[in-house]
Design a protein that fits this description.
The chain has 118 residues and is mostly helical. It has a domain of 46 residues.
């Protein structure tokens, strides 16, 4: 049974902790200005985001507009198509492996060792 989801108010800020695996590429001197958690903590305190260093990027998202049901159906269909493609690829891979094994057996059988008993 699915867990009922709660609706948050627009003023509720959820904190998302980012875990860095491996060595960080961030310079230590820029730690306070580049750490997402610190930026969000500062925003929670002050309500002000840091100034943008470049112009925002605008994308054409007209394909994402529409009825949510249609979008979900397209997503389900894409998942089914991907599953079908993966099954076909696995089938081809198994056929190729079988052909390779058969060719190897034929090659081994046709190469009879010379008679050294005489």
């Amino acid at each position: 049974m699915p867990v009922p989801k709660t609706i948050r108010s627009c003023y509720h800020r959820a904190r998302h902790v980012t875990e860095i695996l491996g060595e960080s590429c961030t310079q230590a001197t820029d730690g306070n200005t580049t750490d997402v958690n610190k930026i969000m903590a500062r925003f929670t305190r002050t309500g002000i985001l840091p100034e943008a260093t470049r112009e925002g990027q605008y994308a054409d998202v007209t394909d994402l507009q529409g009825d949510i049901t249609e979008i979900l159906e397209r997503g389900k269909q894409a998942a089914l198509d991907l599953e079908q493609l993966m099954a076909e690829a696995k089938k081809r891979e198994n056929e190729t492996i079988s052909e390779t094994n058969e060719n190897a057996k034929e090659t081994t059988a046709s190469e009879t060792p010379p008679d050294t008993t005489a």
